[in-house]
Amino acid sequence: MSFNELMAELDERNIARRVGIPHDEARMRYALSSNTVQNFDEFTRIISDYYSRHFTACVSHGGRLSASEAASAAKELLEREYRRRGGDIVTAYNDAHDGTNGGMRVILDTISEGLKAESVERYIRDAFDRYVAPNLWEQKVEIIRQFIVQCGVHLASSIQADQPERYASNFRELIMAYRAGLQRTSSIFRRL
Amino acid sequence: MTKLDRLLETIDPARTLEQVSARVDEAINSFRVKSGVIKEWQEFEDLLTAFFRHVENSILGIRVSNSGYAHIDWGRCCRLLKKEYGPNGEKAAFEIVRTGVEGGLYGILKAVAS
Known about the structure:
The complex is a heterodimer of chains A (192) and B (114). Chain A is elongated, with a radius of gyration of 21 Å. Chain A contains 9 helices and no strands. In chain A, 31% of the residues are buried. Chain A is mainly α and 192 residues long. Chain A folds into 2 domains: 13-126, no CATH class; 133-190, no CATH class. Chain A starts with a helix and ends with a helix. In chain A, helix 5 packs across helix 6. Chain B has helices spanning 3-10, 13-30, 41-60, 70-85, 89-99, 104-113. Chain B is elongated and about 55 Å long. The termini of chain B are far apart. Chain B has a domain at 37-114. The A-B interface holds A 12-13, 16-17, 20-22, 24-25, 27-28, 31-33, 35, 99-100, 102-106, 109, 186-187, 190-192 and B 18, 21-22, 25-26, 28-30, 32-33, 35-37, 85-89, 92, 95-96, 99-107, 110.
C-alpha cells in the first residue's frame, strides 16, 4: 500500500485513458440524423437506443439492455440531471422537440456524461478499496501518515502531523480534495 | 402583416441566433471521427481544420468541402482555441486531445463549435 501508487491510479490522465476516452468515443460514434424529435415516442426511442448502445459498449461490454430497461434508465438519468438545473424530463423533451439549448445533441451528451461520471466514480471507489481496505483502520492511518509526509509541508498550519489517526476516517475526502486541487492546477498550467 | 413586418421578423436577432445554433448542432451531429485520441500534431491540425470548415459550411449553408487554403482555416481555428484555452490555446487543446482529460477530443470539438 503506497500513497504514490494510489495517486497514480487516481491521476486524471490515467482515469481518462481507462474510463473517460471510451465513453467519449461511444458518444462520438453515435450518429444523429436530426437534432429534433417529433413526439415523445420518438424521444423515448432515441434516448433508449443511445443509452443501450453506450451502456453495452462502455459499462457491460456486451449484451443489450431490453428496450424498456434502457428507456427507464435513460429517463431516470435525464430526470436526475435536469432536476439539478431546475427542470425535469419534460424540460429535456421540450429542448429535444424545439431544438433549443442544443436539442437532441445535448440530451445525448447529458446521458453520455452521466454514464461517464458513474463509471469514474466506480473506478475511484475500486482504486481506494484496493489500496485501503474499508474494514482495516491501520491501513487508513498509514495512508494518511504517508499523505502528511508527502504533502503536509504545504498544509503545516492546518495539520497535526503527529496524529494521522485524527484524519484516518476521512482519508477519502482528504485525498479527493487534494487530487481535485492538483487537477485544477494542471488545467491552469495547460493553458499558459 | 406588412412587408416591413416580414422583413423585421426575418432578420430578428433571436431568430437568427436560433437558426445558427441549430446549424451548429447539426454540424456536430454529422461530423465523424475515427478515434477519440490523437497523438500526432499534424493529425490534430488536419482534423480540427476539417471540423472548423464543416461547421462553418453548415452555418453558411455551403456545400463545398474546403476553401483550398488549409493554413488560413487552421489559423482561424487557432484564434478560436486561444479564445477558449488561453494564449497557447492550440497547444493546450492538443494536450487535452492527446490525454483525453477535460472531455478530450469531443470537448474540444464542442468548444470550437460553440
